[in-house]
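Changelog-adjacent note: as of this version, every example in the card shows the full chain rather than a window. The one below runs 274 residues end to end.
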Amino acid sequence: MTGSSAGRERARPGGPGGGPGHGSGGERPDGAGSGGGREDGSGSGGERPDGAERAGGPERTSLSARARDAIRQRIADRTYPQGARLVEREVAEELRMSRVPVREALRALVGEGLLELLPHSGVRVRRLDRADVEHLYEVWEPLAVQASRLAARRVARSAPVEPPGVTALRASLDRAEQAASDPEGAREVAAHTAFHEDIVALSGNPMLARTMERLGGQLRLLFGMREEPEHMRAQHAVMFRYIAQGDEESAAASTLLHVRDSRTVALRSLFDDA
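Full-length structure tokens:
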């Protein structure tokens, strides 16, 4: 979990607060579109001339998902910092898409709690307050512990054959270690998030995976806001070792320690808790 809020925030052109949308004109996420050539083939007006987007077909769904993932990543790596107002037209230009899939992506991210609607002026990246952080940890803690427990159980039941998910988890751990020196912190945020996601994948429980996916955006936002001391990075290696050994109880206990340490660090770095 990565760098401090102050140290990681990067100013963006267009006005105070960073992020697109600080220029003229607050726009709603359902506004009409304009813009030049896009990777999806749109011209002026922002709509596809063949009507594929208006028809709501699979191509539009794919573009909307890509836009959603790209915006999530920009929020996580603080390209769009907390409080930044996002203007649909400008985000579409950045992503080289028409405005329709971007509009759908912004609406979806409002539903995920990453963005919030502004009266008559579009959306902005949500600021997490103390209650948000505490509530997030209250939900994440039991889910993370159960994910590690189930992942270790699956490894134990597969012995002596190692499930492929262990290899992916080991690779995530290696990437997190390599990314620790990244001065911007974006790679470490991505690697840390991937490590926890790979534990969930290894658990083999699709319902748990869907539940965690709903929390994923807010967890990425949180990981990008707070520092991660060296001892917490070392906890990843301990968690991995117990999971790879198929030791359920130790995997669960080490994950519980990690999540509670994470909560303490988050509250201290974000709200000056002693």
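Structural remarks: Confidence is low (pLDDT under 50) at residues 1-28, 30-55.
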